[in-house]
Amino acid sequence: MVTQAEDLSRTALRIYVYLLESKDPKGVRDIARALNMPVSSVHYHLKRLEDLEIIGRRGDGYVVTKTIHLEGYVLLGRRLIPRLLIYSLFFLGVSLSQTYMILINKTVTSDKLLLLTLCLTAFILFLLEGLNMRSKLKSL
């Protein structure tokens, strides 16, 4: 039984992610059109995913029946969000609160400035890496 994304081919993973982020059931032609792939290839991978019980046929299309773990991503609703983007939001919050404290107290000490610099740097790095992960997921 497949439980990891590494066990899926690149094409099957693209189809899985597309179905995971879709609201409605999608047919073979809809998936092929959206992913710019041949219908025969999409059909083959859909059958393979269906045999692995990762997706199922519902009414007029296919839907995800079992979520598999994608390393480095968190599923929020129907969106795959890179964990690094969530970490970047934490550092943004710390940076904003530190900036607020500096503005309220009207004092800038070396430790406050160091904390602000480190948090802003961490925010930027995590944000850029998270956006890079998101673009890699979209370009599978």
Q: Your description of this structure?
A:
The chain is 60% helix and 11% strand. With 140 residues, the chain is mainly alpha-helical. It folds into two domains: 5-64, Winged helix-like DNA-binding domain superfamily/Winged helix DNA-binding domain (Arc Repressor Mutant, subunit A), CATH 1.10.10.10; 83-138, no CATH class. A hairpin with a 2-residue loop joins strand 3 and strand 4 (79-82). Helix 4 runs antiparallel to helix 5 (110-138). It is elongated. The two termini are 23 Å apart.
Describe the secondary-structure layout.
Blueprint lengths: L9 H11 L7 H8 L3 H13 L3 E4 L2 E4 L8 E4 L2 E4 H23 L4 H29 L2
Antiparallel strand pairs: 1-2, 3-4
- Give the N-to-C terminal Cα separation: 23 Å
Q: Work out the strand percent.
A: 5-15%
- SSE pattern, N- to C-terminal: HHHEEEEHH
What share of the residues lie within helices?
55-70%
Question: How many strands appear in the DSSP assignment?
Answer: 4
Determine the number of helices (DSSP H or I, runs of at least 4 residues): 5
Tell me the number of structural domains: 2
Give the overall average pLDDT. 92
Low-confidence blocks of residues: none
Walk across the major sheet and give the strand order.
1-2
Short account of what is shown:
Helix content is 60%, strand content 11%. It is mainly alpha-helical. A hairpin with a 2-residue loop joins β3 (73-76) and β4 (79-82).
Please give a handful of descriptors for the protein shown.
140 residues, mainly alpha, Arc Repressor Mutant, subunit A, two-stranded antiparallel sheet, 5 helices
